[in-house]
Specification:
With about 180 residues, the protein is an alpha/beta fold. It contains five helices and nine strands.
Length: about 180
Amino acid sequence: MPPAVFVTGPPGSGKTTAVARAVEELRRRGFKVGGMLSREVRRGQSRWGFEVIDLESGAVGVLASVEQPAGPRVGKYRVNLGDLEEVGVKAIERAVEGCDVVVIDEVGPMELASQRFKEAVRRALDSGKVVLGTVHFKAREGLMGEVKRRGDVKLITITYESRERLSRSVVEEAVKLAEGALRP
């Protein structure tokens, strides 16, 4: 089974940016990439919430926000399980079925509010596909810890100081895995 690459680091360290750069490079090299990215949404100077983006279809949903009326609470946000599952989980499931590389951004507390998300992550990691993702920095328990401990996952830790250099490493590692798995 080809290994996976997961990026971890503190909030704002560049995890999603590194994965997005790797997605661009993989696509430029002809790989079919699908799955989900999460993106911060700001209103003025404040973080309002997060979007979830389907990398294949371009569909966008609200992952969590300070204005979400219902759903599991994570910090000051409420998770929108409907959009997470309709956009994010379905994007992962479709990528496992029809893409060369599956992207999962992020395996974190908000996403883990969904049982379907947890199942989709495990299916992706056990699928034999190349998986590129991000995982919450501090967590050691549950699925987040499981991802970090898997023998087939390469974990790259990004810090504010190392983000440019390690962002390039994430791109190089993702390309190497995809080429090794799909172009013997």
